[in-house]
Design goal:
Leucine-rich repeat, LRR (right-handed beta-alpha superhelix), 2 domains, elongated, five-stranded mixed β-sheet, alpha/beta, signal, 204 residues
Length: 204
């Protein structure tokens, strides 16, 4: 009985330490609560945040609604692989090219709270439009154009490829001509040998 109590105490101590470690990793302006199963509830709502804080990997539920966040750096949320629920509504989102990352990321989360209140604030062409309703026509300025340096590299590569093909064609032509010449030499040599042998036979 005493051993069982000791084991229970050790287990409870370990769980308390785990919870403390999880809460210690909580972003400063936010509140974090451990779930009974595993992971954290991270509540950063209504904190006047302008940027997404550094979030712990064990975040399961994330609440960032009603802040002043305008954008999320592409890749900044990829480490939240266990996230099951998110609310990022009520922020003045700038729907420029970077918003495509956020739109795709949010759509991958199983539970999205208040998606209708997830709206663009700028630019004016899409102001008050829901993120889930953004289309390719709305994001036409984001169509990728090659940089001048990339074009230069591409043109240079085309020249190199064309030069390589030309060299290969010339080499194949030279090889064919060399083979024909070798055949002619061989035929001429055989003919000369035959004539020489026939003349020597006649002289005998």
């Amino acid at each position: 009985m005493a051993r069982r109590k000791i084991s229970v105490c050790i287990l409870l101590t370990a769980l308390i330490q785990l919870c403390n470690c999880s809460i210690d990793s909580c972003p400063g302006p936010c509140s974090c609560f451990p779930l009974q199963t595993s992971g954290l509830i991270v509540n950063c709502s209504s904190r006047h945040l302008k940027d997404v804080p550094d979030l712990p990997e064990i975040t399961v539920r994330l609440y960032l609604q009603n802040n002043l966040i305008t954008s999320v750096t592409p890749g900044a949320l990829d480490h939240l692989v266990g996230l099951q629920e998110v609310d990022m509504s009520g922020n003045p989102w700038s729907c420029d090219c970077q918003i495509l990352y956020l739109k795709s990321w949010i759509e991958s989360i199983p539970v999205q709270r208040n998606p209708r209140n997830l709206k663009c604030a700028t630019p004016n062409t899409v102001s008050m439009k829901q993120l889930e309703n953004l289309t390719g026509n709305d994001m036409s300025p984001c169509r990728r154009t090659w940089a001048i340096k990339c074009r230069k590299f591409f043109i240079r590569d085309l020249y190199l490829i064309g030069l390589t093909v030309l060299v290969l064609i010339l080499m194949s032509y030279v090889v064919r001509m060399a083979r024909k010449l070798a055949c002619r030499i061989a035929v001429t040599t055989r003919t000369c040998h035959k004539k020489a042998s026939s003349e020597s036979y006649k002289s005998k």
